[in-house]
Design goal:
single chain, alpha/beta, Aspartate Aminotransferase, domain 1, Aspartate Aminotransferase, domain 2, 2 domains, four-stranded mixed β-sheet, 12 helices, binds pyridoxal-5'-phosphate
Amino acid sequence: MNSNTSKPFDCVAETYSRFDINIVRGQGARLWDDKGRQYIDFTSGIAVCSLGHCNPKVVEAVREQAGQLFHISNLYWTEPQLKVASTLVEHSCTDRVFFCNSGAEAVEAAIKLARRHGHATRGPDCYEIITLEGSFHGRTLATITATGQPVYQRGFEPLPPGFTHVPLNDTRALELAANRRRTAAILVEPIQGEGGVRPLSDAFLEATRAVADDLGAVLIFDEIQVGMGRTGTLFAYEQTPVEPDVICLAKALANGMPIGAMLAKEEIMKYLGPGSHASTFGGNPVACAAAGAVLDQFLQTDILQQVKQKGEYLKKRLVELTQDWREVREVRGRGLIQAIEFHSPKPDLASWLLEKGFLSIVSHGLILRLLPPFIIGREEIDQFIETLAEYKHGQDS
Ligand SMILES: Cc1ncc(COP(=O)(O)O)c(C=O)c1O
């Protein structure tokens, strides 16, 4: 017997640097650890539990579906999958959905689709994907290569060929990178999430559409972090001047049940015919039952309107707090994805906030990224701002 089995923490791969707390329960915007301490969640499990922890309608849908049919594979139709596919199609600019289990898988599917489409319409050399510096698209080999941050690629070489990166919002660089023979797709997040909550300008997004149209390439929006209501509309592209050809979703789509989806227009998705791509668990009935309950709430309540209002309130409070805070470079975001960028690293900030009872994310040491659930209360936002003010005064003194 391996001696590690007596020490559970030592049995898990050390791929994450975790905070040393053990969360045992969640409800709404609150979480509790095994010692009974309560926390307010400003992460939503990294943009996942947008309707709050253990959202009652999602819990009910999962319970009911788990007692009826857990899994059957994609050899057959199931009602929950059909409901989610038709709802996503009805409310987007796309026509068909491929289901998978995570964000990286959704981007991987989009990359495969773009290559198939490129090969079929413009020949075998048409496989290159243009993505952005600072982007994040997942942790598989293809998606770390698409990701415009060398830190995620180091040590995993050789990386698959066919990816080229241009600076964010640099139209000239995009036009120079575009190649009539080789460029199969342009892949962007409408607002870079993990990279630091950096929105793409309308002018740049218009350029991505124009370049893709000119070449006959596919425009892919990775909405895994900023889609599904996070910015105040069901899809983030709805607040931009362009429509993508392909959309990648995951995270908040099922409020915590693992799911991913790649949506595309019919004239593109038709290049992924039977046998060309697959996932055993993709579109699993229980995950889709959860997603159905999520979409019902996004579409049948005023929750997305609330995201806009609460987002504006959170941003206003962050701007007020930071206007005389010399260490702050910028406050930015849309809806309920907001960030404070500091001039110099704040390695202790997330642990300090945790100690005070708030879950938060600090990316690259420099950027406090706030992703509260949509059901967050104004009082909870106020409490968070007061706590951050305490940190600010500690830094100033
Ligand atoms: C924009 C974006 N794309 C892709 C991914 C990868 O998703 P997953 O971790 O579910 O594979 C993430 C995860 O943070 C993301 O933010």
